[in-house]
Amino acid sequence: MSVLSTPSSKARFDLVSALKRALLAALVAFGLFSLMIGVRTHTGSNGALFLEGRPGLLAIMVGIVFVSTLARELILGERQIELRSLVPPALTAPLQILPKLAAPALLVFALIVPIIFYQNRYMLDLGIMILTYVMLGWGLNIVVGLAGLLDLGYVAFYAVGAYSYALLAEHFGFSFWICLPLAGILASFWGIILGFPVLRLRGDYLAIVTMAFGEIIRLVLLNFQTLTHGPDGISGIPRPSFFGLPFNNEPGGFAHTFGLHYSFTHRIVFLYYLILVLALVTNFVTIRLRRLPIGRAWEALREDEIACRSLGINTTNTKLTAFAMGAMFAGFAGSFFATRQGFISPESFTFTESAMVLAIVVLGGMGSQIGVAVAAAVMLGGFELFREFATFRMLVFGLAMVLIMIWRPRGLVATRTPSVFLRSPKEVDAEDVRRARAKSWSWRRARHD
Amino acid sequence: MTDAATDTILAVQHLTMRFGGLVAVDDVSFNAKRGAITALIGPNGAGKTTVFNCITGFYKPTVGMLKLMHADGSVYLLERLFDFRINKFARVARTFQNIRLFQGMTALENLMVAQHNPLMRASGMTVLGLFGYSGFASAEQAAKDKARYWLDRIGLLERADDPAGSLPYGAQRRLEVARAMCADPVLLCLDEPAAGLNARESAELNELLLFIRTQHAVSILLIEHDMSVVMEISDHIVVLDYGVKIADGAPQAVRDDPKVVGAYLGVADEEIETAEAEAGL
Known about the structure:
The complex is a heterodimer of chains A (about 450) and B (about 280). Chain A is about 70% helix and about 5% strand. Chain A is mainly alpha-helical and about 450 residues long. In chain A, the strands form three sheets. In chain A, strands 1-2 form a two-stranded antiparallel ribbon. Chain B is an alpha/beta fold. Chain B has two domains: about 190 residues, P-loop containing nucleotide triphosphate hydrolases (Rossmann fold, 3-Layer(aba) Sandwich); about 80 residues, no CATH class. Chain B has 13 helices and ten strands. In chain B, the strands form two sheets. Chain B has a six-stranded mixed sheet with strand order 6-7-8-3-9-10, with helices on both faces. In chain B, strands 2-1-4-5 form a four-stranded antiparallel sheet. Chain B is globular. The interface between A and B is large, with 45 and 54 residues.
């Protein structure tokens, strides 16, 4: 009798606890959705706002949450699903080749985008924007991903680059190609200026100071009216030329010289390839630097600063070079931004931009080049994709971020390729290292007990 | 310079370290001989690690002189060098009580980071290296060979490309010693190298340290609690208690020193009574 009754009582208990959890989830959903979905403001005929209750829609949403939570609890219970186990074994081997093909495939795709979307101005602009963020992400990856210095004011260097180009062009009439390296140098100079006061800071404290630095730069740009025209910004920034050939419909312009019909798209395509080249240069330099002693010192600094000092590494210089390198690429990207827009104002360099770039780096997987590129495309592409959802855009986007962080807490690409190896370059999964470390420590504790 | 002076690699003179009102190390003087293993022992809180941190540049001593003499006769005053310069110029390398490896990096990379300064010079401060200067490639190969030698020595050649954090505890200890050796030191400071090791691993470590001393002519200064290690391998022992040096000499002499026995095991009640009577309490 008792043998028979045990499973049934256990099942009843499971049902009760599952119901409890589902009710709790529904309650939370009700709290969240009641304002967002439950009510809607409308403008009446006399111009006044009135609220329209939508209890039906709210009930459906809460119902979905309740039923899906209940179903999950009943079917899975306490079991966790390993995502890997869901992939059929036959597919495992081909799937392992995918990451290796990802980088070349993405590069080829990036190269042919202007050909595919030649008639589609919107896609080209989106491509340029994504590549700008890819470049910023790769630049910030040096500071955050490699050197482990959490920088929340990265946009300051982007602004320095943009204003350097705008002001040098306005006052001295320098062309884009002269200003580009100058903007990079000026931005890295500001990177060093930021680097000095924060040398002793780490983690949260560093993040706060760099965030303040970003705001200071923005406020200076906003209030230094005589130089920067304050909130009015700088307009009429010269457009880039094709190595001296302007993109216009006159003799001596790009179209005439090459015997083409003048089209506005020429400039857009040129800008697209320009930012692609700049981004690839950033990537190439970062990959090279990682294999040089300075790159290894950055990574060592991220792992353990005290050990670095005990090995004779000048941590001051190492940190400053990381800041300077990261800032330099932001400076390049900034001057590109200025020449693309033709108009810049402090509005473009708010904290949101820093947060966005940092989110791209964290989402992509700190230190991973391909991960950052994919994350930039996913984030910005996602923003555009969810445009239809209008007010729900942030909700959907936030949800997507939460899901990604649950599934891949260390970013899309959590593996790290060693910078040097004796036999074969093994990809190292950050999660495996953490697990092994935890095991080694608990084992040590057990031995001490 | 006299023979006695050249025979000494490190002369610690009147070292005092105060943290506010707390005197962690009080007027400690001792010499470490060249090519010898000197052990610094004492009960918990005796100030051993503080002495270490002063020697390796992590603290700036309040009072005292730390004189390091290279075999070529050049002298470095460690209390004036600070931070990374101790390793870079005076060539003193150290390990840590709680292992400080670069856990996410591979064992090989750990040993490459230790050769940062020569590689940095070879890469022309990164600039030449960035443009693929051939001199850098050969320097890097040499650094890799050196790393391979030490990996082989500590029995980790098979696991060279594994992250340091995933190695077993004893291997991590040995790797940290190898990493310090890759920095090409004249004096190697080991902070409790045998902590947490089992008897077999401890024996392996002893063998490694003796090998370093005899084959690489590197002097070793070590802090240790494991008396089997200390008594077996050290040539000279310095005992600290409450920041003061209480004994200094050969292992056998130190072991029999009543002060040392008192510091470790406590003294008999009668002795305290006699002392109190003498003090008039």
